[in-house]
Structure formats: C-alpha cells, structure tokens
Design brief:
Blueprint: E1 2-4, E2 7-11, E3 17-21, E4 26-29, E5 39-44, E6 52-57, E7 63-67, H1 69-76, H2 90-97, H3 104-108, H4 119-129, H5 142-161, E8 205-209, E9 212-216
Antiparallel strand pairs: 1-2, 2-3, 3-7, 4-6, 5-6, 8-9
Amino acid sequence: MWRLGKKVVLDLDNSDRIVFEPRMTGLTLLVDPPDVGHLRLIFELSGGAAPRLLFWSQRGLSLIRLLSPRQFDKYYGPDKLGPDALEVTPELLRERFSKSSRAIKVALLDQRSLAGIGNLYASELLHRARVHPERRCNTLRPAQWKKIHAAMVEVLNEAILHQGSTLSDGTYRNANNEAGGFQDSHRVYARAGEKCVQCGKARIVSTVQAQRSTFFCPRCQRP
C-alpha cells in the first residue's frame, strides 16, 4: 500500500491496483470504523499483519477504483496527475506554476499540476512562506518560490509525522481510527480572529477562494 498524492493505492498480486480517493470524509482503516452505517467496503486479507482493510465514507463522496495497469495510467498518468509535492524541486515547482495568472493558493490545489496539497495545508504553508494567498503566481519572485517549496516540504512532513489533522468535526482519523495531532500545530487554519502566532500582533483573517476557506495573517502575508 502506498500514497499517490492524496490517494491511497493497494497493489494486488495480479498487477491490478485498487485506488482509494478519500476526498472529504473517506477513511482507510485497519480497525473498526467510527460507525457501521457509513462503512462502504470490507477487504478480508490473508498472509499479512492485518486481517481486514475497511473503507468508511460519511458523505459518500469518496471513490474506489479497481484498475489494470493500463487503466491506472489512463486515470493517474502524468497528464492527469502532477508530481508529488514531496518529490518536486524548487525549480520544478516554479516551472509548473510561474506562468499562471491564478492566485497561488488556488493553483496549489490543482492536483493536475501538483499532487498532494489539500486546502488546509495550502493555507499553512503559505503562512510559513509569508506569501499572500491571493498573490498571482506570475508575480512571485524566484526567492519566494524557494520559500514556498521549503514551507511545503516542512508542513507536509510535519503533518505526516503527526498523522494528519483532526478538526472540530472529528471526521478525519488515521488507519487505527485515532485522531491526528497536526491540528495542534496549525498557525492559521480555522483560527480566524485569533492573534497570529508568528508576529503576535495581527489577527488571522478568513476569506473564500474558489469556494474554499482560506486563512492568512495580513501582517505576515502582505499583498
């Protein structure tokens, strides 16, 4: 089992693959789910440490695909999914985005350009990089792209170390149905009105970009 951007991939002995797309509320679990009412699929396993693999999705927005190698390339090849956010270099990151007139926060969520960054982590990494989320990609300087790359790697690795972020709704859980811990390290996400932990002066602002909530510090992340 391995990760492909924000997706989970299970390799089968016959070279086929099962791809789990959790989307908003999907969970891939090794233990009993939060409830049985939203349990979508159970895999009975043999020969390994885990006897079962379960997939749970509260809203039913998740997607599971059983794909042959050819089908896998069709759905998730390089023309459909960008390089993983933890594998790109600062130069490649700049190359893929610097000609775009889109706001940097919106661009980072485009999985065809770069795979693996969700809405929450985009806000967090831009705050650490001190880049305003509405700044257009084609106006960013090379030094700013390096800061964005460094912050992206830092935030994603910290989030993995702490097994993700479980917000106030409690929906996200890790494979053992336990809460993640990275929410305790959030600097801006869901902290609107609170003082910025970085500058200690301005208060975090919330806005909407491409129908998604964005959080930033107006002092640390000047337009």
